[in-house]
Design brief:
Its cofactor is pyridoxal 5'-phosphate. This protein is of the alpha/beta class. It has 13 helices and 14 strands. Helix content is 39%, strand content 13%.
C-alpha cells in the first residue's frame, strides 16, 4: 500500500462524521432533497466554473478593452493587445508558438475544423483520384465531436473511416492497431489524449512518433483532442508531434470558448500543417476563423492557460490525493463489490477521474445518483432517450461487462474539492444505496 493511500486511510468513515460535515452549512430541503447550494459537485469533466482570476480578467477586459480589435481606436488597440497576450498564454501552456494558435468557439468547432481540413486537403492534393475517398483513422472511444463528424462523412460517401478498438487490457488504443489500419489513402489519424469517461490516457505520443518514423506515411496528418487532459496532466506539442491539438476552455476553469493548435512552422523533415477555414468573412485569425474576436472570453481563456502553466503540478497532486482517498473509502465499504472502471495496471489515468460501479441488481448508476441528496456526478453515457436505459458504449468498448457498466458512475474532482467533500459524497452514496436496497 502506498504512503498516499495509508495517509487517507487514517481519516474516519463514519456516518456521524459525514453527517456532521453535511450540517456544517445552513440546510434547506425541497421535496426531501437538499437544495443546490448544499450540493457537492464532482462532475468537473463535464464542465468547470470560472476561476476567480479568470472571471476578473474577463470583467476587466470587457470594461477596458471593449473595442473592435481591428480598429485603431484606443479601446480597439487595447482589445488587440488583450488578444495577443491571450494567444501567447495559450501557446506557452502547450509549449507552442503564438502563430500556432487559432481561437474558436469551442472544442466541437476545433475538431470540426481539423476534420474539414483533412477532407479538403486530400481532395486538393489528389485531384486526379476522383474515385478515391480520403481515409480517416480514429478510435472507438472518441467524443461525439469527432465520432459523429466522421460518421456523417461516411454516410455521405465523402470518406472511409476505420475505428480502431481499444484494448480490454489497458483501456487504450493499441499503437500497432493504428499502424495496421493505415492505407494508401489515409489522410488523418485522430486519437483523443485522454478519455472523458474512464480517464485513461491514450498513447498519442507513441502513435505520432511511429507514424513520423515511416517515410511513406509522411503526408498523414495527426490530431489529438486534448479537452480532458489539459489542466490535469502536462500537455506539450514538443513531446506530442501532432499537427493539430484541440483546447477547450471550460474543461479547465476557463470560459466556453476554445482554441486550435496547428503546426504552422515548416521543418526540413515536414511541411507545415494545412488549415482550411469553414467560415468566410472579415479576415480575423489570419482568415482561418473570421469574425470579430470575442475579446473578453479570449482574454479569459488566456488567463486560464496561464494558471495551468503556473500551477499544474499542484493541481494534479491535489486531485490525485482526492481520488485515492475516494476510491479507498469506497473500497473499505463495498470491498470486492466495487469495480473501478478504467483502472488498468498497464495504463495511466487522469488524476481527477474515478469511474466506479457497485455490484447489485438494482444499483444502476443513474438510480444511485438519483437517490443521492447532495452529490452531483454523472453516469457518463450520452443517451438522450427518455424511455430507454443506455449502457455506456465507452465502458463496454473497454471490455467492462454490461451489468457492471450499467451501474457506472463517473466522479471527477476539481481544484476546490476537499476531503470533507469526499466524506460527504461517500456518506451520501452509502445512504442512497441503503435506500435502494430497502425498496428492492
Amino acid at each position: 500500500m502506498s504512503d498516499e493511500v495509508k495517509e487517507v486511510e487514517k481519516r474516519p468513515l463514519s456516518g456521524e462524521a459525514c453527517e456532521t460535515n453535511i450540517t456544517k452549512k445552513p440546510r434547506t430541503e425541497t421535496n426531501g432533497k437538499l437544495n443546490d447550494n448544499r450540493c457537492v459537485y464532482l462532475d468537473y469533466n463535464a464542465t468547470t466554473p470560472l476561476d476567480v482570476e479568470v472571471l476578473h480578467t474577463i470583467s476587466n477586459t470587457l470594461q477596458h478593452a471593449w473595442g473592435n480589435p481591428s480598429s485603431k481606436s484606443k479601446p480597439g488597440i487595447e482589445a488587440a493587445k488583450a488578444v495577443a497576450v491571450a494567444r501567447q498564454q495559450v501557446s506557452e501552456m502547450i509549449q507552442a508558438i503564438p502563430n500556432d494558435i487559432v481561437f474558436t468557439s469551442g472544442g466541437t468547432e476545433s475538431n470540426n475544423l481539423v476534420l474539414h481540413t483533412a477532407l479538403k486537403h486530400f481532395q486538393k492534393t489528389h485531384p486526379e483520384s476522383s474515385d478515391m475517398k480520403p481515409h480517416f483513422i480514429t478510435s472507438n472511444i472518441e467524443h461525439d465531436a469527432v465520432k459523429l463528424v466522421l460518421e456523417h462523412y461516411k454516410e455521405e460517401y465523402e470518406a472511409e473511416v476505420t475505428y480502431v478498438p481499444v484494448s480490454h487490457n489497458t483501456g487504450a488504443v493499441e499503437v500497432q492497431g493504428v499502424l495496421d489500419a493505415i492505407k494508401s489513402n489515409t489522410c488523418l489519424i485522430s486519437i483523443m489524449l485522454a478519455n472523458n469517461e474512464t480517464g485513461v490516457i491514450q498513447p498519442v505520443q507513441e502513435i505520432c512518433e511511429r507514424v513520423r518514423s515511416l517515410p511513406q506515411y509522411s503526408s498523414i496528418l495527426l490530431h489529438t483532442d486534448a479537452a480532458q487532459a489539459i489542466g490535469k496532466i502536462e500537455v506539450s506539442v514538443r513531446s506530442l508531434p501532432v499537427d493539430y491539438l484541440t483546447i477547450v476552455g471550460h474543461k479547465f476553469y476557463g470560459p466556453r470558448i476554445g482554441a486550435l493548435y496547428f503546426r504552422s512552422s515548416k521543418t526540413p523533415e515536414q511541411a507545415s500543417a494545412p488549415l482550411y477555414p469553414m467560415f468566410f468573412g472579415g479576415g480575423q485569425e489570419r482568415n482561418y476563423r473570421p469574425g470579430t474576436e470575442n475579446t473578453g472570453m479570449i482574454a479569459g481563456l488566456g488567463k486560464a492557460c496561464y494558471l495551468v502553466t503556473k500551477n499544474l503540478e499542484n493541481y494534479a497532486k491535489h486531485m490525485r490525493e482526492l481520488r485515492s482517498y475516494f476510491e479507498s473509502k469506497l473500497r473499505s465499504v463495498y470491498g470486492e463489490r466495487l469495480h473501478i472502471n478504467g483502472k488498468f495496471t498497464e495504463s495511466e489515468r487522469l488524476p481527477n477521474t474515478s469511474n466506479v460501479s457497485i455490484e447489485g441488481m438494482h444499483l444502476k448508476g443513474s438510480d444511485v445518483l438519483r437517490n443521492c441528496q447532495c452529490t452531483q456526478a454523472s453516469v457518463g453515457a450520452a443517451c438522450h432517450s427518455a424511455t430507454k436505459f443506455c449502457v455506456s458504449s465507452i465502458l463496454t468498448a473497454t471490455g467492462i461487462p454490461e451489468h457492471i457498466a450499467a451501474n457506472a458512475m463517473r466522479f471527477s474532482m476539481g481544484r476546490e474539492t476537499t476531503m470533507d467533500d469526499i466524506d460527504t459524497v461517500i456518506f451520501d452514496i452509502v445512504k442512497a444505496i441503503k435506500a435502494i436496497d430497502a425498496h428492492s
